[in-house]
Amino acid sequence: MSVSTCLIVDDSRIIRKVARRIVEGLGYEVDEAADGAEALAYCTSALPDVLLIDWNMPVMDGLSFLRRMRALPGGDRPKALFCSIETRPEKIAEALAAGADDYVMKPFDGDILQSKLSEVGAIAA
């Protein structure tokens, strides 16, 4: 069986580093993108199994990236988790409507991330 891949899309190097450590610990092969445009370029050549997406980023925000990634051939396949400090229910609903599978509040830890990935079927519980 091939190793599952995860793309972490966040403009914060620290957040990417923390998230990378967590998902690598869950057995994922991890790549990183600093904004939505970089992530979209990555996804046009290879779609990851899982995406962790920040909301507010320069160049292209997480919502715009998610909508464009979902429109790619096979773009419905990756599990997408929004990771944000955004707490307003209408914003969370907007992310889910754009194609997010679930939502993770920042700051998150390994247990929270593992449980969310498990809920969306990205890892075995």
CATH class placement: Alpha Beta
The SS-based structural class is alpha/beta
Shape: globular
User: How large is the count of helical segments?
Assistant: 5
Pfam family, one: Response_reg
Domain Response regulatory: 5-121
Keywords: Phosphoprotein
Protein name: Response regulator
Protein architecture, described:
The protein is an alpha/beta fold. It has one domain: Response regulator (Rossmann fold), CATH 3.40.50.2300. It has five helices and five strands, in the order E-H-E-H-E-H-E-H-E-H. It has a five-stranded parallel β-sheet, sandwiched between helices. Helix 4 (89-97) links the parallel strand 4 (79-84) and strand 5 (102-105). Helix 2 (36-45) runs parallel beside helix 3. The two termini are 18 Å apart. This is Response regulator.
Draw up the topology in text.
Layout: E1 5-9, H1 13-25, E2 29-33, H2 36-45, E3 50-54, H3 62-70, E4 79-84, H4 89-97, E5 102-105, H5 110-119
Parallel strand pairs: 1-2, 1-3, 3-4, 4-5
Keywords: Phosphoprotein
Modified residues (4-aspartylphosphate): 54
Pfam families: Response_reg
Any descriptors?
125 residues; alpha/beta; Rossmann fold; 5-stranded parallel beta sheet; 5 helices; 5 strands
